[in-house]
């Protein structure tokens, strides 16, 4: 809510570009403080793709530190590059924060992945706490 309110206030008092930019900066600060991770991990692609079983085309994507809006585009491109007819395990056990936009993007990407016969399994989220009651809210490891 703080991100939305600060973006609206700055946009109304200045202009749209400055308002959106300030909203992004506030979002980065919230992710930094909630996730207790180094700032560089909010911008780097800190995940590893590994083929677990060639016969079943089973891949593991291990997300480390953070998966938030600022490093999401590359993550989505990696998922799309995984061959069709695959099982993709998203392992969040080494992550500290998974942002709302990451969950929303995964939900939007699932139908496209299903069309290419890719199955997505999320694991390692059992030690995370949601920041709100919304199903795709930001999750922080506690």
Strand-helix topology:
Elements: H1 2-13, H2 16-35, E1 47-53, E2 58-67, H3 72-81, E3 86-98, H4 100-115, E4 118-123, E5 128-130, E6 139-141
Parallel strand pairs: 2-3, 3-4
Antiparallel strand pairs: 1-2, 3-6, 5-6
Structure at a glance:
With 142 residues, this protein is α/β, with parallel strands linked by helices.
Architecture overview:
- This protein has helices at residues 2-13, 16-35, 72-81, 100-115, and strands spanning 47-53, 58-67, 86-98, 118-123, 128-130, 139-141.
- With 142 residues, it is an alpha/beta fold.
- β2, α3 (72-81) and β3 form a beta-alpha-beta unit.
- α1 (2-13) runs antiparallel to α2 and α3 runs parallel beside α4.
- The longest helix has 20 residues, at 16-35.
- The radius of gyration is 16 Å and the shape is elongated.
Number of domains: 2
CATH superfamily of the largest domain: STAS domain
**How is the quaternary structure best described?**
single chain
What is the CATH topology classification name of the largest domain?
Transcription Regulator spoIIAA
Percent strand: 25-35%
Stretches with pLDDT under 50, minimum 5 residues: none
Mean pLDDT: 88
């Amino acid at each position: 809510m703080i991100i939305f309110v600060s973006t609206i206030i700055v946009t109304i008092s200045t202009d749209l570009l400055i308002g959106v930019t300030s909203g992004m900066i506030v979002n980065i600060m919230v992710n930094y403080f909630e996730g207790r991770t180094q700032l560089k991990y909010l911008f780097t692609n800190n995940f590893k793709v590994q083929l677990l079983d060639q016969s079943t085309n089973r891949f593991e994507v291990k997300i480390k530190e953070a998966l938030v809006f600022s490093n999401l585009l590359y993550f989505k491109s990696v998922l799309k590059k995984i061959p069709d007819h695959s099982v993709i395990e998203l392992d969040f056990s080494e992550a500290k924060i998974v942002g709302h936009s990451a969950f929303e993007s995964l939900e939007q990407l699932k139908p496209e992945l299903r069309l290419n016969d890719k199955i997505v399994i999320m694991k390692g989220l059992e030690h995370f706490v949601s920041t709100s009651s919304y199903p795709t809210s930001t999750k922080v490891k506690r």
